[in-house]
């Protein structure tokens, strides 16, 4: 189960990162998405 989460989490993050900038063309939004992506990756990796 842990492996599945580790594989799904990054994929979802990538999809969100691709959708977010498309919906909102704001540099701040992109920055927030980037920060969130890193946090998600770190949390998943540590867990």
From TrEMBL:
Which parts of this chain are annotated as the region Disordered? Answer: 20-47
Q: Does the keyword Cell wall biogenesis/degradation apply?
A: no
User: Is Metal-binding among this UniProt entry's keywords?
Assistant: no
Q: Which residues form a coiled coil?
A: none
> Which InterPro entries does the record match to this protein?
dUTPase-like_sf
Mark out the compositionally biased spans (Polar residues).
26-36
Q: Name one GO molecular function term.
A: hydrolase activity
Q: Which domain of life is it from?
A: Bacteria
Q: Which UniProt keywords apply?
A: Hydrolase
**Gene3D superfamilies hit by this protein:** 2.70.40.10
UniProt feature, compositional bias: Gly residues: 37-47
Report what the protein is called.
Deoxyuridine 5'-triphosphate nucleotidohydrolase
Q: What is the lineage of its organism?
A: Bacteria, Pseudomonadati, Pseudomonadota, Alphaproteobacteria, Hyphomicrobiales
């Amino acid at each position: 189960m842990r492996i599945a989460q580790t594989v799904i989490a990054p994929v979802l993050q990538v999809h969100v990162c691709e959708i977010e900038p498309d919906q909102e063309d704001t540099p701040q939004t992109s920055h927030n998405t980037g920060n969130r992506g890193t946090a998600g990756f770190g949390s998943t990796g540590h867990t």
